[in-house]
Design goal:
heterodimer; A: mainly alpha; MetI-like fold; 13 helices; disordered N terminus; B: alpha/beta; D-Maltodextrin-Binding Protein, domain 2; 2 domains; three-stranded antiparallel sheet; 15 strands; globular; Bact_solute-bd_prot1 (chain B); Sugar ABC transporter substrate-binding protein (chain B); signal (chain B); SBP (chain B)
Chain lengths: 294, 447
């Protein structure tokens, strides 16, 4: 928690100093951030009928959460599960691969000297500044010439690139992996790969996990790229699939299934919350790393 | 057959995608150049093993495809829902620009058709015998698919506008059902005065609604001559008539500031705080599905008019299906289209909540005499079919209408938000539209 910008006066430890105002502001912000989540939980317990006839921010009417979950999982021959599987595939291969590549690359840039390093640095920094959505259309045109559109590769390949992750690992590896250890390992006769996998990779774990979390979240929530690339609903990830369900009611003769859209959204965020809870201690230490000179 | 443009802002990139692709949407020459076939050739092609891909989001497509495959077991139809409305068009445009990956058949709303037809992305169906089908469809829908002496789609559904209203609200307040826009404004004042949370309708500005309303008022802001000469004029009599009328509603806070298809909108339709909807004839199915708790309270009446006793209506939403120039299986694609939009498909479409565009279905006794329980037993189709006949002829959309609609929010939408003169909003929309048209290489009149 932030403790204000000033140094604590002598005699008062950081644990005893409390600010009523900051607490109130943080509580308001927390409420603001959690309100949509609360809304989602409340409304996923309602039937389509109760959704629009009862007060939105509290439980009322029939408690239909289990019904909604069953319907969500079975609607349209269980297509939701298919989308769930697709998202998992994109996340495991895409985010996992991106993290692996970013770790290898970041480590190499931090610990090896080679010609053109500054040019690589400039390119990576430049790439961080370009939003992925801006590249989606050119990527689409390129992939379509290569015959890759409408395949899982069209989502996985672009997801494998994470300039920000590379940059993060790079900055992290400079301090986290002491060059002395590497020299010691080399003197003892370990090859570069062995050094990396047995020593450096462990030291890089917090940075690795931080990047993993970022790429998981980015891939899990990826919407625009699959929207452009895919035209077969069998390859949709959850984001695009749920949007298709959401749009369905606004079609002549379309069946309104907002209750399933809401329940589906709730189910969609559960894995990401779980991943966050499991990995957050790594993330915290990862973000704090390098902030203090030891 | 999404009824109405629910503008989804999927980001600047989407507009950019559209912009870049429009410039070069001439068809690539990869597909074999089939420009026509006789009925016998088409019938023969339907008896041979082949497959076609169809892109569309209308829920009626699935049962129609099933029926088609049953009738023609050798044809495999791959039906894909690639998105609703704008998402669908962006994807189509991208595939057209890429030169590959487009489907054989695509659903297309009437407002978006000129964009694809005039740029050569859709096949002219005249050579396949589509001209003979004219009598099957209503004049207004046929007019929407015929451009520049070509036929670029077959109509599927239509959305002649009518006024859906809450009978309970009007009865409780002792109000007459408005038949003119002046009466409509008066009723709006009475409803809002009786309950400050209640409104005669909702409107935060919507391109599809605005263009349909101008259509009804007799306006003709878009004139397309040939494939590249375009005139945009929102200062014509009809446009001004609509804007002056609607100004009164917006500026006096008589319309609910709620966007259509939102959570609040459904709530308003359920509890009666939105008392009327002036919208396309496809609405009953959506009311039944989305607003089940208000069963029995809704009724339908003809759209209010500017002149007492002179019926006038417009189309709001609706669309048809087209064959892509890129298709390498045009004979089967056209054969499918004839099934989908012809007698057999139309029957399935109507049975699944669609509002037909085929004269035979619209005039069948069964359809006209249908008494809707949801509407308290009212014969709603009598009103809706009359609306189809009252559609003002002569309207056309721009060859870059999807883009024009995407910038509506920055122009007319601003006038709504600030409650300033809608005429000025329309002028700003015109200016931005003309600018874009010129950039795309059209000859555009209308400073």
């Amino acid at each position: 928690m932030p403790r204000g910008g000033r140094l604590a006066p002598a005699g008062t430890g950081p644990t005893t100093r409390k600010s009523v105002w900051l607490t109130i502001i943080m509580a308001l912000l927390a409420g603001y951030a959690l309100l949509p989540l609360f809304w989602l939980v409340v409304n996923s317990t309602k039937t389509q009928r109760d959704l629009f006839s009862t007060f939105g921010l509290w439980f009322s009417g029939d408690f239909a959460l289990w019904d909604n979950i069953v319907q969500t999982l079975t609607y349209d021959d269980g297509v939701f599960l298919r989308w769930f599987g697709n998202t998992l595939l994109y996340v495991v291969v895409g985010a996992g691969g991106a993290t692996f590549l970013a770790t290898l690359g970041g480590y190499a840039l931090a610990k090896f000297d080679f010609p053109g390093k500054r040019a690589v640095f400039a390119v990576v920094l430049g790439a961080v500044a370009v939003p992925g959505a801006a590249l989606a259309v050119p990527t689409f045109l390129m992939f379509s010439q290569m015959g890759l559109t409408n395949t899982p590769w069209s989502i996985i390949l672009p997801s494998l690139i994470s300039p920000f992750g590379l940059f993060l690992v790079w900055a992290f590896a400079v301090d986290a992996v002491p060059t002395e250890i590497l020299e010691a390992a080399r003197i003892d006769g370990a090859g570069e790969f062995r050094t990396f996998f047995t020593i450096s990779a462990r030291l890089l774990a917090p940075g690795f996990v931080t990047v993993l979390l970022f790429t998981i979240v980015a891939t899990w929530n990826n919407y625009f790229l699959p929207l452009i690339m895919l035209s077969e609903s069998t390859w949709y990830p959850l984001t695009v699939g749920l949007n298709a369900w959401n749009a369905q009611a606004a079609t002549a003769g379309g069946e309104a299934i907002y209750n399933l859209v809401i329940t589906g959204s709730l189910l969609t965020i559960v894995p990401i919350i779980v991943a966050f809870l499991f990995l957050q201690r790594y993330w915290q230490s990862g973000l704090a790393a390098g902030s203090v000179k030891q | 057959m999404r009824k109405h443009s629910i503008i989804r802002w999927t980001g600047v990139a989407m507009a950019a995608a559209l912009a870049t692709s429009l410039a070069a949407c001439a068809p690539s020459g990869s597909a074999e150049d089939v420009t026509g076939a006789t009925a016998d050739e088409i019938a023969a092609a339907l008896q041979e093993e082949s497959s076609i891909t169809v892109w569309g989001w209308a829920p009626q497509l699935e049962p129609i495809v099933e029926a088609f495959e049953e009738k023609y077991p050798k044809i495999d139809v791959k039906l894909e829902n690639v998105g609703t409305g704008n998402d669908h068009y962006t994807k189509l445009q991208n595939a057209i620009k890429a030169g590959t990956g487009a489907p054989d058949v695509a659903q297309v709303e009437y407002y978006a058709l000129p964009q694809f037809a005039l740029s050569g992305a859709f096949a002219d169906l005249t050579g396949f015998g589509a001209g003979e089908l004219e009598d099957q469809f209503t004049p207004s829908t046929w007019g929407s698919v015929s451009l520049n002496d070509g036929i670029y789609a077959l109509p599927q559904d239509s959305g002649p506008m009518a006024m859906f209203y809450r009978e309970d609200v009007f009865t409780n307040l002792g109000l007459e059902i408005p038949t003119t826009w002046d009466e409509y404004i008066a009723a709006g004042k009475a409803i809002h005065a009786a309950n400050p949370d209640a409104y005669i309708t909702n409107d935060v500005g919507d391109a599809g609604f605005t263009t349909s309303m101008i259509w009804q008022a007799g306006g003709n802001p878009y004139v397309v001559d040939g494939t590249t000469d375009v005139t945009v004029d929102f200062a014509d009599e009809g446009s001004t008539k609509w804007a002056d009328t609607w100004n009164q509603l917006v500026q006096e806070d008589l319309v609910a500031p709620i966007s259509s298809w939102s959570d609040e909108w459904y709530q308003g339709l359920t509890d009666g705080s939105i008392a009327t909807l002036v919208i396309g004839a496809w609405m009953p199915g959506n009311l039944e599905s989305g607003v089940p708790d208000a069963a029995g309270t809704w009724r339908v009446a003809p759209m209010p008019t500017y002149e007492e006793g002179v019926a006038a209506a417009a189309e709001n939403g609706g669309g048809g299906d087209a064959v892509l120039e890129q298709s390498e299986n045009k004979l089967v694609a056209y054969g499918f289209l004839e099934f989908l939009n012809g007698e057999e498909g139309a029957a399935i479409h109507a049975a699944n909540g669609g509002f037909p565009s085929t004269v035979a279905d619209l005039e069948s006794d069964e359809f006209l005499n249908y008494e809707s329980d949801y509407f308290g037993g009212q014969k709603i189709n009598e009103v809706l079919v009359q609306a189809a006949k009252d559609v003002v002829p002569g309207w056309s959309y721009l060859p870059f209408q999807t883009y024009a609609n995407s910038i509506y929010g920055d122009t007319v939408g601003q006038a709504y938000a600030s409650k300033s003169d809608l005429n000025e909003g329309l002028a700003a929309w015109q200016e931005a539209t003309v600018k874009y048209g010129v950039e795309q290489g059209f000859t555009v009149n209308g400073e």
